[in-house]
Amino acid sequence: MTLEEFRASLTTPEPPPALDCALQALWWEAQGHWDRAHECAQVNDADPRAAWVHAYLHRNEGDLANAAYWYRRAGRPVAHDALEAEWLAIAAELLARS
Fold first, then answer.
1. How far is CA 67 from the centre of its chain?
2. Max Cα–Cα distance, the chain, nearest Å
3. 95 burial class (0-12, 13-18, 19+ CB within 10 angstroms)?
4. How far apart are CA 35 and CA 70, in angstroms?
5. Rounded Cα distance, 84 and 61, in Å
6. Is residue 15 part of a domain?
7. CA dihedral in degrees (64, 35, 83, 69; nearest 10)?
8. Residue 58 and residue 34: Cα distance in Å, rounded?
9. What's the rounded mean pLDDT across residues 78-85?
10. What is the rounded CA–CA span in Å between residue 74 and residue 29?
């Protein structure tokens, strides 16, 4: 799936079934369902992909200490760019690797 296809799927009521938990979490967050996104990110939080999304989610809610913990678990530097830019970067990389 391309980034454009992923973004287009945001017009549907459910995420595409082939998405892994990390991408489902991004999808639900973009829909404004933070709790559902958080549940998806926690399903496999030992996975660095899910940990990266988990970090983004906590950064988005303003819990920067918790976000920093998840960035470390993901092996990523703490993000400082705009949230939308980070969402796009995460989505693009995860889709490229799936």
1. 12
2. 33
3. middle
4. 17
5. 13
6. no
7. 30
8. 10
9. 97
10. 18
**pLDDT(45) > 90:** no
The CATH number that applies at residue 73 is 1.25.40
Tokens of 51: 């940990």
Residue 28 identity = W
47, 25 Cβ separation under 8 angstroms: no
User: 85 is written with which tokens?
Assistant: 């830019």
Tokens 């092996």 appear where?
75
Per-residue pLDDT at 98: 82
Global pTM reads 0.94
- The residue behind tokens 């830019």 is 85
The residue length of the chain stands at 98
Q: Is 32 among the domain residues?
A: yes
| Structural domain count of the chain | 1
